[in-house]
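User: Structure tokens for this complex, please. No commentary.
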Amino acid sequence: MIKKEGHRHPITATIAEINDIFSRIGFSLAEGPEMEKELYNFDRLNVAKDHPSRDMQDTFWLKDEYVNEPTVLRTHTSPVQARYMDSHKPPIRIIVPGKVFRNEATDATHEAQFYQLEGLCVDENINLGHLKGVLEYFFSNFLKGEVEVRFRPSYFPFVEPGLEVDMRLLSGESKLKGKWVEIFGAGMVHPNVLRESGIDTEKYTGYAFGGGIDRLIMIKYGIDDVRNLYTGDLRLVNQF
Amino acid sequence: MLISYNWLKDYLGEGLPPVEEVVELLTFHAFEIEGTEEIDGDTQIEVNVLPDRASSCLSHRGIALELAVLLNKKMLDDPLKEEVKFPTYDGFYIEIEDKDDCSRFMLGLMEGVKVGPSPDWLKQRLETLGQRSINNIVDATNYVMYGLGQPMHVYDADIFSKKDGKWSFVVRKAKANEIITLLPEKAGGEDREIELKGTELLVVNKENNKAVALAGIKGGTYAGLHKGTTNIILEAANFNSTLTRRTARNLNILTDASKRFENEVSNTLPPYTMRAIVKLIKEIAGGEFMGMADKYLAPQVLPEVLVRPTRVNQVLGLSLEESFMENVLVRLGAKIDKKEKGWLVTAPKDRVDLVIEENYIDEIGRIYGLANIISIAPEKLPLAEINSNYYYSDKIRSILVSLGFSEIITTSFRDKDQIHLQNALASDKEYIRSSILPELEKALSLNVQNIDVLGLREVKLFEIGTVFIKDDGRAVEHTVLTIGGRIKKTGYSPKDDLIVNEAIKVLKETGFVIEQSAKQGVCEINLTELIYNMPTPDKYEESTPLPNITYQTFSIYPAIVRDIAMWAPEDTAVEEIEKILRENVGELCVRITLFDEFTKDGRTSYAFRLVFQSHEKTLTDAEIDPYMDKIYKVVKEVGFEVR
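Assistant:
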């Protein structure tokens, strides 16, 4: 007979799965507004006004008449780092899944809205090895196979050192197996970001990572066009 | 930044490894490489230089130094090494209104040059970088800029009028409504007249108060080079990064020069660049260098940064030897002063980006190789808090899914709504949604048309998402839950309300206080308010993992639906009938759904709906008939009675 159950959207189902994986290692789920102050989206993340790093993200700005201070549609989930550190003291371990926005032309791999996953850990004696370990833990649990993670130098203003994260599935039957995939951006939290939240950078260090949840889903399930995730079409949703 | 492989060879000689190895080295230790392309015996390498390294690496010398450091080799000839000793020329007068806008302004005079075509080697270098050769003098300015990263500008000395016997330059802010005529965007294009706001920085001829360049961005037409030019004034200056960036963006004139200034190229470069260009021009256009004038109002001071080897290892999670770290810093050209508390490190003059300890940790880490970081497995730790908003949103999802609702996520953008965006690129994204309902309606209509393909009797949808409304003139956001039902392809029917109200009833029974009910088959509930009043949860429910599927692209062509009903003996298994249908119906049948079943007089009636759809075209009835004929035949053969 006709199946009685409905279907969760793969994005929220994936977020639930991600939350499961991270909650086991003490990462709390945090959220923040989609309409974000320039202050949190940029300034507090060490992205200075009139700095070339502003060009790295095409930003939707709200009209001045609706807002008391310059406001954007958040371009990443990273502002929640600053918000969370303002209200919590280390040790901090959070993940932030959420919708983000980019003012750019759309195609099969770019949407003006997509979901991002942010991770932040601030504690005593945190180093890049912890970052690598947590990413290997996450990817291998998420893709249900042994995963190798590799770092390459990169730049994001709110981390230093900043790096690109590649991963490679080593086991299982997936088409992904054996191929390096560029997947996340990450790094050690920039001391300016910690200091702005009143965190003692001599005592504490931290790492942060972020990447597209849409991309994780596209890779895992072989979805070829990101736009199909946002049309409300059950011919996609009901496959899951 | 486009890089010529052959040019790197000038710096590194035979020590330069093959292209593939250069790409590999840079990728894992410095920059992402966008691609390589062979051009006329050379290879163009596209290096993605990010803002942290753009002060020194938008140049061949910068990239060559990177490679030298990584290969642990010395550059054959570093143009920044030897101090520049040039005679001073007293026929120049330089005035800088504000040293924050322009920290350095250097001029040089060459007499007796001959403007003409560039030699082939120079043309070829520029071609590798995607640049067209213009003439030897202009090409020389571009060449030294791509070489050392310092933009340059040239004036015709005989056209540039003198004041009190001197060529007199002023660097000052523009006046409101002041006009400057700029050189064309591309050679052969038209001059552009631009009216200025007064925030822009100009280079001005003091004698006639004429703007001769939009500082750091683009030269003016005044005193420009021409075929008969013989005496030239060379300018190498340093302009404020923020100011250059603002002006370039405001006027939308983004140039190679503005890109370098906005990335804060070191102001120690002008003399080295002047030396390089004079040498090059003498070689390719002749002429004599008469001397230079240098107004250096804000000499660069690089900080002494405390770098503690213990801290380096602590942050990288490694146990590197101090001798290795020292070696890396020395290779970079930094100076180390060892103190008890750690090393006081001063960067080489072009590395203005090295200002805090973390910058050096980054340098040591990437040169050692970030691929060598050793992972530390995370520990199992208890959760510090449960997010109530997420917990309840997720709970509602589970409930609605169990009731047969499917979840959608639609666009947050609208072509018209309450909150207007300032700069949306696309006209359908000028506003952000104040409600999910319009998109939900669209999704109901879309999906009800595909109801047979989906194998559903009715469409039941929900979305949880953020909406943006105007409250007292200000934009505010909150989360909503939007639920909708649709049975008929023709649109709303009153039964749709029952679908939605049933869901609301179950949510209420679970403890959610909801007052609304369905209108026109839909309902939108303020979830932020709803959850606010709920008790704090103490743990998350375990999630249900998604099925392990590979996504199938769905057809965009309409489907054809055929029903078949039959009488079968009471004990016949449905699966058996489905198997028979499946085996005989052909590949175009994308779904078989049992939609009716009843038993009478020892026989059971089964009604199936067969949905046919092609990935390539719209099917016709005539294409389906043969399949149906076959099915009827087979069903009869097995002994069932087709109704």
